[in-house]
Specification:
- The protein is α/β, with parallel strands linked by helices.
- 36% of the residues lie in helices and 21% in strands.
- The protein has a 7-stranded mixed beta sheet with strand order 3-2-1-4-5-7-6, sandwiched between helices.
Length: 299
């Protein structure tokens, strides 16, 4: 008997898109993290001397991210970005863009982008690259669709995110069910992300990180925030069994052990990415050791 091929993908894309479609109905009330991310991206865009004719926004929470660009006078005629195409994996978020503004909108997955090489001089990815099965392949696609001297700005979840929640869920599942199922994506750190940007061929990559700390009174509120940000578990190997009330109660108890004044703190590590598609005219960093002035003399 013929057996269907086994799906070895880390991420169940259908489940993830379903999570994002459900998140759409509540996202404006649960978008504090996206607000922080877009603030970081707008700061970096303002600091860039370039003007971009054609930009692409990948999974920008529908009109939410483009509204912030417009509010900060970065998008539109005579601004930093003249034209913006928005690509959403979720139909609900794509339809939101169509209904609220005139940006070109495409429904597609970032791992198979339907664009020709040299289509854009700017690509923005606010907070979605951690949902790629092939992160390097996606970065290569981003570089491919950039024109010479085009820029990429992105934010990806870092490995220090939600560490205490991860520990609490692991301990609770071991205590109650005697085993552990996958609940969280394997996330990269700053050093590895820098290596991946270099492997993808970006010129002059700059990688840094910011930490956002959020205080919660209960695990239920934390889970609601993650769910309505579209960040629910969509791992292919996730357990399909329903978890009982005892499991979530125990998670809350473990997190409450860390509480001060009734609040426990969770951290989101945001790794910021910036790189360029190289061009013959692009400025290059000096060769190491080519400096003519000693730092000790300056100091």
């Amino acid at each position: 008997m013929h057996k269907p091929p086994i799906d070895k993908s880390l991420i169940d894309k259908k489940a993830h898109i379903a999570n994002r479609n459900r998140a759409f109905y509540h996202h404006r009330d649960f978008c504090f993290l996206y607000e922080c991310i877009m603030e970081l991206l707008t700061e970096r865009l303002h600091d860039t001397a370039y003007h971009f004719t054609d930009g692409l926004m990948i999974d920008g929470f529908g009109s939410f991210s483009s509204d912030i660009l417009r509010k900060n006078q970065l998008l539109g005629d005579n601004h930093k970005i003249s034209n913006l195409t928005q690509m959403e994996s979720s139909f609900n978020f794509a339809n939101d863009v169509i209904q609220k503004n005139t940006d070109t909108t495409i429904v597609a997955d970032a791992e198979s982008m339907p664009f020709s090489p040299n289509s854009f001089d700017l690509v923005l990815s606010p907070f979605h690259l951690h949902w790629m099965n092939d992160l390097v392949g996606t970065l290569i696609q981003i570089k491919r669709i950039l024109r010479e001297d085009g820029a990429f700005f992105g934010v990806i979840a870092g490995g220090n995110s939600l560490r205490n929640l991860r520990d609490a869920m692991t301990q609770a599942e071991l205590e109650i069910y005697g085993g552990v199922s996958p609940h969280f994506l394997p996330l990269v750190d700053v050093q590895i992300m820098g290596q991946l940007m270099q492997r993808a061929g970006f010129a002059m990559p700059v990688i840094d990180a910011e930490t956002v700390n959020v205080r919660y009174q209960s695990a239920d509120k934390l889970f609601a925030d993650l769910r309505y940000m579209g960040e629910g578990n969509a791992l292919t190997a996730r357990s399909r069994k329903p978890y009982g009330k005892a499991f979530f109660k125990r998670i809350n108890e473990l997190l409450q052990m860390q509480a001060e004044d009734g609040f426990f703190t969770v951290s989101f590590e945001l790794i910021l990415l910036h790189g360029w598609r190289s061009s013959p005219q692009q400025r290059k960093p000096l060769r190491r050791g080519s400096g003519e002035v000693s730092l000790t003399e300056v100091l």
